[in-house]
Amino acid sequence: MQKTQENLAKSLTADTIELIPYLPYLLQDIWELGSSPRIIVDLIKKHIITSSETKVLDLACGKGAISIQIAQIFGCHVKSFDLIPDFIEYAKTKSLQYHVEKLCEFIIGDISDAVHVETDFDIVIFGAAGDIFGNPEETILQLKRTIKSGGYIIIDDVYGNVELNGKYPTRKEWFHVFQNTGVKLLEDRLSEIEEIKRINDKQQLVIKQRASELIKKYPDKADMFKSYVKSQQIECNELEYELTGVTMLLRWAVDSD
Description:
Keywords: Methyltransferase, Transferase. By secondary structure, the protein is α/β, with parallel strands linked by helices.
């Protein structure tokens, strides 16, 4: 559980697991955490034939923004996991609001465990940052466990730039990962810089406000909350200036491919 919590904290740019109980408060004004539901919906519309029988797995679903909009638009069943109970409860409330509660199943759970027991899905979505499943190659292989042969994987990640930020795989290096793991890239949708800046500015404003409120309530934890705001800004700067955000739609390659 310690490792799981560390990965969770890292995926939400928290420096310590001590911050985890405060994340629902800090992020209370934001429904769409991370991946863009609009982009994911568009990729599914463009490349995948869906029906009421289509089964979707959403790992690290956050507050359920993607799961709910997929269920509403495509009428398919979505099973979603996140480790933060408050996020799951929020997602359940939202599913009622959007009248898709019968199509959405939200579960409090460790996605590291889920990939070992959840199988036979048509689509799996993974939008958490960090190395929860290991390196990119290990991540793809873990996600493949959850889908049918010929199924689809949607990953929200980044392309690195060797000259600016060598920590992350370049687009060319990602292609090597695809070859090694037996998947085919159908489309990679790059994030638009202006949209990223708009979203970052809006989210940073509300996160700073919530952090200020927590500092007043828990002055002994001020440094932790200030550090979180700073780490959020660093991530925003990386996405704006050093990295290229990307949503990748992959297909488990079959012989006919």
